[in-house]
Automatic annotation (TrEMBL):
Domain Orn/DAP/Arg decarboxylase 2 N-terminal, first and last residues per copy: 36-281
Modified residues annotated as N6-(pyridoxal phosphate)lysine in this record: K60
Reaction(s) the record says it catalyses: meso-2,6-diaminopimelate + H(+) = L-lysine + CO2
Descriptive protein name: Diaminopimelate decarboxylase
Complex and partners: Homodimer.
Active-site positions on this chain: C346 (proton donor)
Species, as recorded: Primorskyibacter sedentarius
Cofactor(s) demanded: pyridoxal 5'-phosphate
Domain of life from the UniProt record: Bacteria
HAMAP family in the cross-refs: LysA (MF_02120)
Function: Specifically catalyzes the decarboxylation of meso-diaminopimelate (meso-DAP) to L-lysine.
Length: 421
């Protein structure tokens, strides 16, 4: 469910008409709903009620400060994957004890900064990283809390580019070697092992891969405890998918996911951490764009928009589907026709949809890309010297620009001309 609905023939974000925002900030822009963000966060929090837990929002999905503060004030922790994301989380007011640091390439400079600022735990991805954390923590005279990410060799049945739990993926320690690696961690100075971490991928639409992975984690927990390790936390990752196409079968609900967690690891007495990102932010955002031209081609019509692949790269990168709807609601009986929906960037890959069945569209019409709140703005670029587009947050009947569109001068002036030119 989201809070982008037609009212009296006009698409609204909560209590504000999308066309009103477009008139104020110009297109294209991202638009987020506070009510949807909070609803989705609370669904996860409530799904784990009755067991000690922390919902850590995977902020790589959308790291705007306003989004982070909205979730942090509701009680969310943060899952970060870089020093920059850690700095963003802290700037948004998230205390260090609610931040976990994931990612395969943590540098010593990042490790030091995080230890100075406070951290709930490092999710360790490799033995060399574990040694680096030990060295930095020891040099600072502090103890770094760590979990070790195990790779359970489970097929998440998702897109190959966002699968992370198979043996050929770059993430984590093979689960077969976990007991050996935990023994090495226990022997290193400056580290305190607090738990186990696992994350098998993103946009999962079935619960079976989670169940397979979590059962392996449960068995590993008991084996590690038998080896003398104090395992008090289980970081179970994120990855629950969203329905990008309204016509598709909906993925499992957070309540079903929570029940699975309780069934597979609830008997272990551990605090559970989960790291949802896409399901919290994805349906909480839309991309609003205007049609520049309707172009007739050889056997097809093109809708040329003012949004492009640099604004929303998911279709070009993953062949991802986003429902595209008119901001002005079409009549129920209107006949649909196929359009190729494209942007103005000089790449054939700048295509959002092919032969998409839509109601008749004219130049100047506003369109909304649904389910664009996750991995949209954060993956955007200024390719073709196209300014990063604004982000807008709605709260009831209010809206605010939470990231402004830069001017061409601001973009160009970031360059430095060397003295010899």
């Amino acid at each position: 469910m989201d809070h982008f609905l037609y009212r009296d023939g006009a698409l609204c974000a909560e209590d504000v008409a999308v066309a009103e925002i477009a008139a104020a900030v110009d297109t294209p822009f991202y638009l987020y709903s506070t009510a949807t963000l909070l609803r989705h966060y609370r669904l996860f929090d409530e799904a784990l009620a009755g067991m000690p837990h922390l919902v850590c929002y995977a902020m790589k999905a959308n790291s705007n400060q306003a989004i982070l503060r909205t979730l942090a004030e509701a009680g969310a922790g943060m899952d970060v994957v870089s020093g920059g994301e850690y700095a963003r989380a802290k700037a948004a007011g998230v205390p260090g004890e609610r931040i976990v640091f994931s990612g395969v390439g943590k540098t010593k400079a990042e490790i030091r900064a995080v230890l100075e600022g406070g951290i709930r735990q490092f999710n360790v991805e490799s033995e060399p990283e574990m040694q680096a954390i030990s060295e930095v923590a020891s040099s600072m005279g502090v103890i770094a809390p760590v979990t070790i990410r195990v790779n359970p060799d489970v097929d998440a049945k998702t897109h190959a580019k966002i699968a992370t739990g198979k043996s050929e993926n770059k993430f984590g320690i093979p689960i077969a070697r976990a007991r050996q690696v935990y023994a090495e961690a226990a022997a290193l100075p400056g580290l305190k092992v607090v738990g186990i971490d696992v994350h098998i991928g993103s946009q999962l639409t079935q619960l079976e891969p989670f169940e397979a992975a979590y059962k392996k984690v449960a068995d590993l927990t008991q084996a590690l405890r038998a080896d003398g390790h104090e395992i008090t936390r289980l970081d179970l990752g994120g990855g629950l998918g969203i329905p990008y196409a309204r016509s598709n079968e909906a993925p499992p609900l957070p309540t079903d996911y929570g029940a699975l967690i309780k069934r597979t690891v609830g008997h272990l007495g551990c605090e559970v951490e989960i790291e949802p990102g896409r399901l919290i932010a994805g349906n909480a955002g839309i991309l609003v764009s205007r049609v520049i031209y309707v172009k007739s081609g050889e056997g097809r019509d093109f809708l040329i928009l003012d949004a492009a692949m640099n604004d929303l790269i998911r279709p070009a990168m993953y062949d991802a589907h986003h429902d595209i709807v008119p901001v002005i609601e079409p009549a129920a009986a209107v006949e649909h026709q196929p359009y190729d929906v494209v942007g103005p960037v000089c790449e054939s890959g700048d295509t959002f949809a092919k032969a998409r069945q839509m109601p008749p569209v004219a130049a100047g019409d506003l369109l909304a890309f649904r389910s664009a709140g996750a991995y949209g703005a954060v993956m955007a670029s200024e390719y073709n010297t196209r300014p990063m587009i604004p982000e807008v947050l709605v709260h009831g009947d209010q809206f605010a620009v939470i990231r402004a569109r830069p001017t061409f001068d601001e973009i160009i002036n970031r360059d430095t001309i060397p003295a010899w030119l």
